[in-house]
Amino acid sequence: MIARLISANSSELLKMNGDELKQSIKASEGRTVLSENVVIQPAIDGLTMSEIAAAFGADLILLNLFDVFEPKVSGLEVKDAKGTVPGFTSDELIKIVKIVHQHDGLVMSTIGTSQESSGKDVIHEIALKNKTCGVDIQHIGDAAWGVLSPTETIFELSKTIRGLNHTISRMARSINR
Questions:
Q1: DSSP track, 59-82
Q2: Where in the chain are the domains?
Q3: I want to staple 57 with a disulfide (CB 3.0 to 4.6 A). Which of 83, 92, 128, 158 is the partner?
């Protein structure tokens, strides 16, 4: 049995192939948080933006400005594209979700183009509408600080779509499990 992404430990995630990850996201019932992070600037004390986003409840990370030909992540010493997204009415989104789900796909909504810095109330409203429409993954962009959404908005998104219990569980879960 595939663990739900919102309940999975790192050791379980590392063993998943693409299809298993997709099933894990589906089993999370629209409570998957994806945080978009710029990878070219370090955050605090050599941490990556992605580590900070994960600490505040992000399940998945979208690496903005990641160069696949010269892979570098600032804060992580080791040797994918975005644009403005059109909006939809709730009715249009529900139709899109139904079509994609009928074809065994996943739907990701986006909060970006500076909306990610609009405050917790705005994030809560957008996230709740997208969850109600059946979205599988909720993306939150990086424009607010220029590299990462304010941590309080990632936290608000997480609490809104999955509740405090799953949010705390994601925040507290050790990567060594």
A1: SEEEEET--SSS--BTTB------
A2: 29-172
A3: 158
